[in-house]
């Protein structure tokens, strides 16, 4: 659906580390969907030209890392760049991570960074202490 809305310049790349078994990875419901929707809505929908979205799942020491990145406009919440930006998606991610981190041994971290080399934003969720 998004390809029709964003045009033929929209590309999605999936990168799944072969050593990660998706059946053994437990993430809170909607985490990846929220990241993808934010990348499209806030980063790519207003961008002209090539629009790239990348979803990468990789193993890290003691767990996995899920990153969603785009080559969009970047993340500058203080500038109020989008009138429709409520911040609800990221708030939900941080709040869910806080609740789960208080209840479980498995710890989640959420990071948001502006990409320097290719512009855009990268949001990563690290899940530690996953049993492979």
Question: Approximately how much beta-strand content do the residues carry?
Answer: 25-35%
The CATH topology corresponds to: Heat Shock Protein 90
**Class by SSE composition:** alpha+beta
- Architecture, CATH level 2? 2-Layer Sandwich
Query: What is the β-strand count?
Result: 5
Cα shape = globular
Report the total helices: 3
Quick one: CATH class?
Alpha Beta
Spans of at least 5 consecutive residues whose pLDDT stays below 50 are: none
- How would a crystallographer describe the biggest sheet? 5 strands, mixed
How many independent structural domains?
1
CATH superfamily membership: Histidine kinase-like ATPase, C-terminal domain
Between the first and last Cα atoms, what is the distance in angstroms? 35 Å
Q: Would you write up a description of this structure?
A:
27% of the residues lie in helices and 30% in strands. Strands 1-2-3-5-4 form a 5-stranded mixed beta sheet. The protein has one domain (2-128): 2-Layer Sandwich (Heat Shock Protein 90), CATH 3.30.565. The chain has helices at residues 2-6, 31-44, 88-103, and strands at residues 10-16, 51-60, 63-70, 108-114, 121-128. A hairpin with a 2-residue loop joins strand 2 (51-60) and strand 3. The mean pLDDT is 82. The chain has 3 helices and 5 strands. By secondary structure, the chain is of the alpha+beta class.
